[in-house]
Amino acid sequence: MDRAKVQFFKNLSNQGLALTYDDVRLRTGQSNVSTVDISTQSLFSRNISLKVPVVSAAMDTVTTSSMAIAMAKIGGLGVIHAGLSTEDQRKEVRRVKLYLNGLIEKPVTVNQSQTIASVLEMCMLNGFDFRTFPVINDMGKLMGLLTQNDFDFSSNLSVTVKNAMTPLSHVISAPSGTTIKQAYDLMRKNKKKTLPLTDKNGVVGGLYILSDVIRITRDNPEQFNIDEHGRLRTSAAVPTDPDEAIERVNAMQDYLDVAVIDTAQGDSQYTFETLKRLKKAFPHIDIVVGNVSEAASAFALAKAGADGIKVGQGPGSICSTRPETGIGCPQVTAVFECSKAVEEFGIPVCADGGLSHPGDISIAIAAGAHSVMMGSMLAATKETPGEVVGLDDGTMVKLYRGMGSPSALKDSAASRKRYGVSGTGKPLAEGVESYVPYKGSVVDVMDHYTKALRKSMSYCGAPNIETHREKTGFWRITNAGLRESHPHDVKVIK
């Protein structure tokens, strides 16, 4: 890192001082860098890249598959929270990974000897809201298609599927392994909305539906954060229970790019044991570990094999760890110290929590972070879990709570493990719950944040994230300087 920046933080450390976002501002200088030419490419872990250095938090009011899909399409990443059963978390991760796939791998089929009545009964019992089924014989070979039209024009429900279906002679199919682009071209050429895939023996091996294919192919994939197979990047949190962590990653491994060991105290024997066992069992999956806020803790985790470090103990807007326990290093200093400590290992640091303004993203990166993790700044968007609620004054809001809040500790075993809650009596809450004004789509919110980051980097003359991390310097400011940094002495009307 730049010598002046290192000396800046060294002088503070010698005085026993630590800083957070409102304590500093970034130094500007000569810049020939246009915002359109700036690269925001970065890393979340050793092998998992980001096109935008923002990750959504593993919180039950922030990240499930809807948020993770949106974040990956923006170029970031979403970490599916662990307050779900193993099977439900697997389903959420799978939904993200296969979002761009478009292929129904194991479509529901019906036998040609069934009656229309029996198929409708199956739909009712299983809650199926679709009416397109590949029709097979007893050998599993494709014989035709049963679609909504066939149901609509079947006057006798006792008729067999064979007599009601669209026969194979009027169906187009394609070999297993057909890509979504190939499927789209074939469906357009033949004006067909359904494309079953079959193997060399005619056995059904998948199904494309035109509406899904169009949704995917008409997106602009240039900004997507995708893996080598063109699928969205995925991540999920696991607790510091080695057995449960192994169970969860084992269930998700076919769809998971990076697992996040999620705990309020990342420097513990449980964390190291979980990290050791996960790395041994799943060497092909990156493991990010957090949270810590001291250089020695970050160094120890990196030495133990972590592929990324998550920094931040208690800075979050809904976190009450610091006032309840008195611990925690202010976030800018914590990020700097931890990133310096793991520099020799070549692994990235994620600044988790404490962000209040778009400019804080740029400050965190200049302090040494490769990415930031957001909770409150992404909360109450359309893609977060939960319903939009109207308050008496007409304000539209959504629930946002810390994973250490009383209700989260009550509802979620994962939250209790994250905060080490055990024994009898009322648990010590380390978070609160609140309503946050509804923000609309995370796409629009993230567009604002990304533009702000690019503008900041332009002011600082940093053409890319690495230059920003290495060279951009700091001013320490006073309370008067903070006041001056915001609109003041006016009545803001818009």
| Mean pLDDT over the residues | 93
Ends: how far apart?
40 Å
Shape: elongated
Number of E strands: 23
**Total count of helical runs of at least 4 residues:** 19
Overall structural domain count? 2
Share of β-strand residues: 15-25%
Structural class: alpha/beta
Biggest pleated-sheet summary: 8 strands, parallel, barrel
CATH fold-level label of the largest domain: TIM Barrel
| Low-confidence regions | none
The strands making up the biggest β-sheet line up spatially as 4-5-14-15-16-17-18-19
CATH class of the largest domain: Alpha Beta
Query: What's the architecture of the largest domain, going by CATH?
Result: Alpha-Beta Barrel
The CATH superfamily of the largest domain bears the name Aldolase class I
Q: How would you describe what is shown here?
A:
With 494 residues, the chain is α/β, with parallel strands linked by helices. The protein folds into two domains: 3-100 and 224-385 and 442-480, TIM Barrel (Alpha-Beta Barrel); 106-179 and 190-202, CBS-domain (Roll), CATH 3.10.580. Helices cover 36% and strands 17% of the residues. It is built from 19 helices and 23 strands. An eight-stranded parallel β-barrel has the order 4-5-14-15-16-17-18-19, surrounded by seven helices. β12 and β13 form a beta hairpin. α7 packs across α8 (210-217). It is elongated and about 85 Å long. It starts with a helix and ends in a 9-residue tail after the last helix. 46% of the residues are buried. The model has no long low-confidence stretch (mean pLDDT 93).
